[in-house]
Amino acid sequence: MTLTLFSSSLFYRILLMIKNLKNGKPFKAPKYAYNTSEIYVYCPEAQVEAIRSVLSNYEIKVHFNDYSLVNLDEKIITHYENIHLSDNQREFLVTATELGAWVEPLVSYLDERFGYTEVSLLKSSYFLHQKAFSILSTKRTQRAKRFIDISSALLLLLLTSPIILITAILIKLESKGPVLYRQSRTGQYNIEFNVVKFRSMRVDAEAGGAQWASKNDSRVTKVGAFIRKTRIDELPQLFNVIRGDMSMVGPRPEREFFIKELEQEIQYYRFRHAVKPGLTGLAQVSYPYGASLNDAIWKHKYDIHYIKHHSTFLDMKIFLKTIKVVLFGLGR
């Protein structure tokens, strides 16, 4: 193996010298110019089967640890836990980069290509690139997001005030109990706060203890079913946004009771609390309603992706998708 890698590396460097003489320096084309129907994965042998199982859910042809690869034109090369590869194996990846192959960590490649993070493959190194997590470290980004939060919350309160009034009256007419419903949720930095919503369930909905809400939940009232489907029930959360408990866009706020269960099954689940929870979010507009563990995993994939790739433009796209959900009744 060592001799093969050394020979391949030497051959690559000869090719590189020829290319340098001919073109001045190697040119790396944009990623979209590469063959995205197949990828090459380089990882410790002990990880191959686990990665193969995860990637079986993707429509990609995958090659593992092919160190005999010579033709690198339009090839996408990914690596996983490269710290556990040998020096010669890492040298292969460096040489591939020099020769113009697209080389990057496997999780980052899947993250960017598919629009969500494969959380089952996450390692701590994924979170150690601060430039990618600008929402966490850039004060200007945080101030801009807060300004947009307050401005848009006040505007929406003004525009939806007739709907808020009518909804309050209908809830009061249909069933006994308060119009608003307050519930403890976990927010940024794991600090709990009381989220405010229009009551959409019977007053005794959780008399038997905390329960996951289901799509056709029998505890939901007739008015509640409509306001949940159109997300009118979440309009009072605009006051949470103004108070600073929430943002307009972010991960869905969850209850600590369920978080403690989910973090036992989902890697880095509490990382979603690095940002403020949102009135809407990438997970809410990208994944259909669900209350199973698998649904929670999928939502977490989108939440992690959102935190890493946050931008004002992404927030605007999520806003537009939310409007579509509300207008066409594609919500819960």
First-to-last CA distance: 55 Å
The strand order across the widest sheet is: 2-1-3-4
Number of strands: 8
Give the count of structural domains.
2
**SS-based structural class?**
alpha/beta
**Count of helical regions:** 12
Profile the largest sheet: 4 strands, parallel
Which regions are unreliable across 5 or more consecutive residues at pLDDT < 50?
A: 1-9, 19-27
For the CA atoms, what is the radius of gyration? 25 Å
What is the percentage of strand-forming residues? 5-15%
N-to-C SSE string, H for helix and E for strand = HEHEEHEHHHEEHHEHEHHH
Name the quaternary structure.
single chain
Average pLDDT reading: 86
Shape: elongated
Q: Specify the helix fraction band.
A: 40-55%
What report would you give on this structure?
- The chain has 332 residues and is an alpha/beta fold.
- It folds into two domains: 2-114, Rossmann fold, CATH 3.40.50; 136-328, no CATH class.
- The protein is 46% helix and 11% strand.
- The chain contains twelve helices and eight strands.
- The chain has helices at residues 2-23, 48-55, 87-98, 106-114, 134-137, 139-174, 222-229, 237-243, 256-262, 282-286, 293-309, 312-328; strands spanning 38-42, 61-64, 76-79, 102-105, 180-186, 192-198, 247-249, 278-280.
- Helix 3 links the parallel strand 3 and strand 4 (102-105).
- Residues 1-9 and 19-27 have low confidence and may be disordered.
